[in-house]
Amino acid sequence: MKKLAIIILLITVLSFASGCTSQADYDRLLTDYNDLVNDYNELLVSYNEQTAQFEQYVGQVEEYRAQLEEYVQNIPTLLEGAIIPPYLLVKGREVNLVFRNLAGDVEYWHWDVEALEASVILGRFMREMDISELNYLKLYDVTNRFSTGSKYVQLRGHRALDFRPYIMESIFEPIASEFFSRHLDDESKIREVWNMVTQLNTYCEEITETPRLPLETLLLGGGDCEDLAILTTSILKAMPAEWKVSLVYMDSDNPTNINELNHITVYVDTGEYKTFVESTQGDIMSPWEKVDGFYFEVQ
């Protein structure tokens, strides 16, 4: 239709031009006409090519839509064999820790199995041998951890295990530094530690007190209240900051009026922020505002 209109217009112009214009004007108009015809033909070819390409794209979109629908239908089957964070996975002589940080992003950390094996051996020495036996074996690096010369502390006439010697922060310095630099406020830094510990470790009660070293607890995926408190304190003490971190011996049934000692929790004072860190539960980091208990600062 456009071509026909152009031709009619041109005939009209040429008819008019034949009586009113010179031969030169006529030749110029004829050249313009030929140029317009060529442009039209080029545009028509381009239009046909783009139309064919568009139809091809439409076909591809339909194909992709069918593939997506099939994939969505298969998601439940795929998830049956999937490992969803948080989890611990031993592979290639490495223990891999995978969890979601406070931002909801998946985070990966790993330790060599040798570190776990060494921690288990050291933990057994510390738990099962008396200090005199450790000295006899010349394991002075171990005995020096019991700086008071005893494995126990006295609390209102009752003897309880001193869990401070089991805190080891140096191995956690990389992850603690990462958490520390990630946040500006102290609460978020502390909460990041609590978030990791509670995701990767399951709380389980023990009949007898067998404190484990922090790496034992973390890489074995759980422990009782003192194990989780030791682990949490170790990471907090590895933070590049002068925070006051204490183990608190308390009565979980009567937190503000102690009757018996049946629980260990963690208390942190950063100078700007103070909080309890309860790692046996993953819903509330600090379930208490005040605790009547025995506070032992970790140096």
Notes on the protein architecture:
This protein is an alpha+beta fold and 299 residues long. The protein has 2 domains: 79 residues; 209 residues, C8orf32 fold. Helices cover 49% and strands 18% of the residues. The chain contains 9 helices and 11 strands. The strands form 4 sheets. The chain has a 4-stranded antiparallel sheet with strand order 10-9-8-11, with helices on one face. Strands 1-2-3 form a 3-stranded antiparallel sheet. A two-stranded antiparallel ribbon has the order 4-5. A hairpin with a 5-residue loop joins strand 2 and strand 3. The longest helix has 58 residues. It starts with a helix and ends with a strand. The relative contact order is 0.08. The mean pLDDT is 89.
Provide keyphrases for this structure.
alpha+beta; 299 residues; elongated; 3-stranded antiparallel β-sheet; 4-stranded antiparallel β-sheet; 11 strands; 49% helix; C8orf32 fold
Q: What would the principal axes of the Cα set say about the shape?
A: elongated
Taking the sheet with the most strands, its summary is:
4 strands, antiparallel
First and last CA, distance: 92 Å
CATH architecture of the largest domain: Roll
Rg is: 38 Å
Q: Average pLDDT value?
A: 89
Uncertain segments are none
What's the total helix number?
9
Q: What count of structural domains?
A: 2
Q: Any idea of the CATH class of the largest domain?
A: Alpha Beta
